[in-house]
Amino acid sequence: MLKTERQQVGELCSGMDLKAEIRKMCKEKDAIILAHYYTIGDIQDIADFVGDSLALARKAAETDAKMMVMCGVHFMAETCKLLSPDKIVLCPDLNAGCSLADSCKAEDLKKFKDEHPGYQVISYVNTTAAVKALTDVVVTSGNAKKVVDQLPKDAKLIFGPDYNLGNYINEVTGRNMLLWNGGCHVHERFSVSKILELKEEYPDAVVMAHLECKAPVLAIADVKGSTATMLSYAQQSDKRQFIVATEAGILHEMQRTCPDRLFIPVPPEISESGLECSCNECQYMKMNTLEKVYACLKNESPQIKIDPKIAKKAVKPIERMLELS
Ligand code: 13P
Ligand code: SF4
């Protein structure tokens, strides 16, 4: 009987001190591990660099290492490859997608662009390389306002795919960008009522929310921004308690760097099945495991490959973002 991929990886790693073996292999192969804040704590602990999507892109562009393992989701690994095309970019699980990236297909964006001549396209970094190839400038939640503020005031703009982020940026910049109707299944599940319930229990807590949350959630948040914005606010604040409306993986770094503070994750209102649940995790981010990191380093596979014609176009709006932010 054929073994599943999971069984094969399990056998490969059985009885090993995986963290030590991974670090050893990184040294031997001149590889670095990049991890997003939403990955499991064990991966964040062995990573060379942990960050938000903007910081990870910057790191990928500047590293001297021969190889990098991007522990995050597929579009993040693609961004690394676009910025470092000569390097080997490994992705522990190619199935680690993103509901937000899935909400904007390149062919649909192409059609929308054709229907709106004269418009520039601003794409959130949570998009495929094919979508980036149709884009004028990429943004992350950490730099979207700064980038949009630098575009000509009379520019006609399309923003996608995250509706909530685009709506917020319209509000804070006074723009009237046309918004794509996409969203993240994790962030759209946070509700005002759950946050207010927590606020009753912890009246002194600061409410922090990621910009992918819906407008009513952002309206009651004291701090709104990217994962890195929330983290650095907590690190610099005098406050002791924080209610956190984003993927719960970030609590690992918050608690590690601020051990004397209390971080309270917001449970979502409803699950995908329609039932109330306590799951505020991105299942794609959680596909990264120590076993898969070990296996991909050992096998130097799976690697990210991008059609060179798409890559040539897709890297330009990312480079433009890095220049403007
Ligand atoms: P950040 O850019 O804040 O890291 O967010 C990435 C992301 O996927 C949020 O869901
Ligand atoms: Fe994509 Fe949402 Fe997961 Fe972020 S949390 S990677 S936007 S699915």
TrEMBL record:
GO terms for biological process: 'de novo' NAD+ biosynthetic process from L-aspartate. Its cofactor is [4Fe-4S] cluster. GO terms for cellular component: cytosol. Gene3D superfamilies: NadA-like. The keyword 4Fe-4S applies. Its EC number is 2.5.1.72. The keyword Cytoplasm applies. Pathway: Cofactor biosynthesis; NAD(+) biosynthesis; quinolinate from iminoaspartate: step 1/1. InterPro entries: NadA (IPR003473), NadA_sf (IPR036094), Quinolinate_synth_type2 (IPR023066). Belongs to the quinolinate synthase family. Type 2 subfamily. This is Quinolinate synthase.
